[in-house]
Amino acid sequence: MSLRTRFTEELKAAMRAGDSARVSTLRMITAKLKDTDIAARKAPTDPGVSEEQIVAMLRAMAKSRAESVALYRQGNREELAAKEEAEIAVIESFLPQQLDEAAMAAAIDAAVAETGAASIKDMGKVMAALKAKHAAVLDMAKAGPMVKARLGG
């Protein structure tokens, strides 16, 4: 089932269940998806953005909310932080499961071997290989420092 279909089905289910917080977040996701589709449209017949682009959009939404949570906590606004964390939980329910530390290290080792990387100068090649194979399940922000350490940087 595509993410677009899941958004619609989950929105209907949340509306039936009377879960107003989930309904609100799902509506926000679908609105953002429409905006993303419109921005990416080249012709009126375009089907919209790909699943990978939807996942990237969801990751950006979750990251933005995580930053807001930190700011709300600094300002002692716990009720707003809790609302943002609830939104993050809904958004993350649509994201693929991330690789754990061991799996990430194995993927980095494989990418280093595949690219023949020998020094920190080859970091870009390794990151490109990781992104090509594991973009959906690998947190590139965590992978960067691990690749750097692996290459002796």
UniProtKB/TrEMBL annotation:
Record InterPro entries: Asn/Gln_tRNA_amidoTrase-B-like (IPR003789), GatB_Yqey_C_2 (IPR023168), YqeY/Aim41 (IPR019004), YqeY/Aim41_N (IPR042184)
Q: Which parts of the chain are coiled coil? A: none
What are the protein's GO molecular function terms? carbon-nitrogen ligase activity, with glutamine as amido-N-donor
Which domain of life does the UniProt lineage start with? Answer: Bacteria
List residues traversing the bilayer. Answer: none
- Please report the name of this protein according to its UniProt entry: GatB/YqeY domain-containing protein
Q: Which organism is it from?
A: Neoroseomonas eburnea
